[in-house]
Amino acid sequence: MGSTASEVAHLLIPLALLLTAAHVVGHLFVLFGQPRVIGEIAGGLLLGPTLFGALAPALQSQLFPTEGETAAVVGVTYQLGLLLLMFCSGAEMRAVFRRDEARVVGVVALIGVAVPFTVGVLAFRLVDPGPLMGNAHSRSGVLIVFALAIAVTSIPVISRIMYDLGVIETSFARVVLAVAVLEDVFVYVVLAMTLSVTDEGAHQFGLQGTSASGLLFHVTATLGVFVVMLSLGARSFSWFQRQRWNLVARSNAIAYHLLFLFAGTLVCLGLGVTPVFGAFLAGIAVSADQTPSFVQARESIKAFSFAFFVPVYFAIVGLQLDLVRHLDIVFLAWFLVLACVVKSGSVYAAARLAGEASRGAQNLALATNARGGPCIVLASVTFAAGIISEEFYTALVMLAIITSMVAGTMLARVVRAGAPLRDEPRARVT
Prior knowledge:
By secondary structure, this protein is mainly α. Helices cover about 75% and strands about 0% of the residues. α6 (about 100-125) runs parallel beside α9 and α7 (about 140-150) packs antiparallel against α9.
């Protein structure tokens, strides 16, 4: 009995510490006007080798071992947190732009992702890829991650920032979120394909291999899942819900949503598509059903996910960081400047080209420069697949943290000054 109690304690203490650190530091960040997610990462950072490990390395390694049952439980919690984060992000995609906002959304999304990605590919030719490569030793994989990190925009972080600022119902918020949706779909499609580049990535996520035929299958499967889920996912979700034999949906709407999430994830795993992509698409599919009980079910899933799994996921991201041994300040500095200048500049130019006023274009450039969750997912998944090194992983997480903090701070200043974030379109005469 004592042995069992000891084992349970070894499992619960690390999770309790991660949960406490994530919420306490996250709340402190909110009090200082910063995104909660950044505080959650910082909470994990305090428990990792950067601080706790430096002060008490033996105790830190005992509480957070890299092998054994405790490491396995923390790893499962991490994976569930990632899947639930992607599912909840997809479920937020039901908000769409209005017809009079379509031009600016389309132009900004196209130029705002194409230009940074292209610049990233070109700039990579000037970089020594050796320190950035993981165990897979894939130059092409690192190149794609490098370019995607410059192009990505965060849906969860920027939506949370605008919610906290009280501007989530504005035209500015609709445009930013619509642009972020289109950009992040591109990022996740390319990310899913990138994982087929390496044998280790293929093994890690159940992909079909790295031969020419395997790559062709993977690209086809990825695009096929994308098309099918967006066109038939919502209908499938509703159709299964209406069937009399579906006792799960009749018994508990939350359980039905979770089963749909698991089904989408497992289908992607079976076809060789990265599971986070399946979770994201499953979230988009279920968001179309506005039945009150289902809306409440999604809110319940979101509430518990953001109470436990998602904060612990971000805390584990921070826990994995070692800023003492794996932070290349010189690389981070120029990479940060390159990413911010290229992303902000391309979005500003695109917005102006689409007819936005200078003020609105500047704010759009600020908002879309926040990389937050998607950049962290990009770092986490490719690091787990052995595509990128720990140094590059650390730089990507720091890029997500810094750009999100800057976006939150600058947009808050605009709102506090009483200036509109975007000139609202004129009402149409009927």
